[in-house]
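Title: Comparing notes on inverse folding

I've been comparing how different people in this forum approach sequence design from structure. To keep things fair, I'm posting one structure and asking everyone to reply with a full sequence. Here's the target:
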């Protein structure tokens, strides 16, 4: 049994999709980040960076005590290695999957997040910041489009690299990103949507326009916990 901490959003959906693809029994544990539940001592023991998602595996491969994992790249690698799926074991194939997972967690995800932040949530609309991150998320999408030329999936076979890169594109409207200029990404995205496990997950997802934040919510999400 895996406990999965987190409600929704692109990062949580990475873990949700991987778990669904692997057919793992899961216990969903909600964490209301709008109310500051990510700062509770109990959650910080699992996720010291106070971010969702995080998981607790009650049946680790070493037979020991339950093990917690935080950060989405680490979660995806942990699950793929434990269950022997979604990542090749040969040197070159594994290397390629890890490259693109790290590309996503260090580039595509954070840059999309910044683009969405300055477009939708920043108290002051800063044209430089909006242009900077909008330009960069488009550049990164072009990188992905080039990689997918002649490929069905990012590392040829379906893997955690595809899961990692897919979920932020679900929320692309929040980042003013259109896929029309990226035909390879668009075709790949449609293939991803048609996977049965992903279809089941997407049935539970509603992409809404970003809602206005109160000052307290903005502090909880983007600053430090109010005293």
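Reply #1:
Here's my take.
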């Amino acid at each position: 049994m895996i406990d999965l901490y987190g409600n929704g959003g692109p990062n949580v959906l990475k873990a949700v999709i991987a778990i669904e693809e692997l057919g793992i029994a899961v216990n969903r544990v909600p964490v209301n980040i709008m109310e500051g539940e990510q700062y509770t001592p109990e959650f910080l023991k699992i996720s010291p960076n106070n971010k969702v998602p995080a998981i607790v595996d009650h049946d680790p491969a070493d037979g020991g005590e339950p093990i917690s994992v935080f950060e989405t790249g680490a979660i995806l690698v942990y699950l793929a290695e434990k269950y022997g799926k979604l990542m090749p074991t040969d040197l070159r194939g594994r290397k390629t999957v890890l490259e693109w997972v790290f590309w996503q967690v260090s580039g595509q995800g954070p840059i999309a997040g910044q683009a969405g932040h300055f477009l939708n949530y920043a108290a002051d609309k800063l044209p430089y910041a909006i242009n900077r991150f909008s330009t960069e998320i488009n550049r990164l999408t072009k990188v992905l489009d080039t990689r997918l030329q002649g490929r069905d999936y990012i590392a040829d076979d379906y893997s955690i690299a595809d899961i990692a890169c897919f979920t932020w594109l679900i929320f692309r409207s929040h980042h003013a990103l259109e896929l029309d200029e990226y035909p390879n990404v668009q075709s790949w995205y449609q293939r991803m949507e048609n996977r049965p496990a992903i279809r089941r997950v997407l049935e539970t997802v509603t992409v809404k326009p970003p809602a206005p934040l109160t000052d307290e919510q903005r502090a909880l999400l983007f600053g430090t916990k109010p005293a």
